Amino acid sequence: MKLFSRLYRQVMMWAVHRHAPLYLSMTSFVESIFWPVPVDVMLAPMALARPQKAWYYAGLATLFSVLGAAFGYLLGYALWDPVVEPFISAMGYHDKIDVARQWFSDWGIWVIFIASFTPVPYKVFTVTAGLLHMAFLPFILISLVGRGMRFFLVSGLMVWGGVRMERKLIQYIDLLGWLCVVAAVIAYLLLRN
């Protein structure tokens, strides 16, 4: 079934859309607060479609992701009880917040770097940092470094791989897509308890 190759072609068309930088900025902002889709899903095809703008796109993603992180921090800091906690309860995310608190306890400020650079859900840590009243300036600086490293790495890989990588990706996109779906289902079944 060629579902993922059709999706890939659609994403590449969106990547060159004249409003793509605006959408990337908005996605980067909300992903740091609540949005479940990683910024890389939009950043990578944009950098691949227009490699001459890859560093600009990485900079936009970094800037707006850190601005979103600051907003998430402020939500956790000032609006935990009236806004964030009811949302967390409704979504059943208390266990994720408990894990974030434990990570802050174990690793301190370095957990922000881990969350900002790796696939760990960054949004959980931005809000929790505010809830725990973490020092704001170190939070912003470490977020800037971690998010910048991640997004510039993604853009750099797209520039480096270029047309050759795109050809390989197109060749195997459906297989890779279905493997990701199977892996996600297996991970869900293993981790749901």
From TrEMBL:
Domain of life: Bacteria
Record-linked Pfam families: VTT_dom
Keyword annotations from UniProtKB, A to Z: Membrane, Transmembrane, Transmembrane helix
GO CC field: plasma membrane
Glycoprotein listed as a keyword: no
Residues covered by the VTT domain: 40-157
Membrane spanning residue stretches: 55-80, 107-125, 137-163, 169-191
InterPro entries: DedA_domain, VTT_dom
Protein known as: VTT domain-containing protein
UniProt organism field: Zobellella taiwanensis
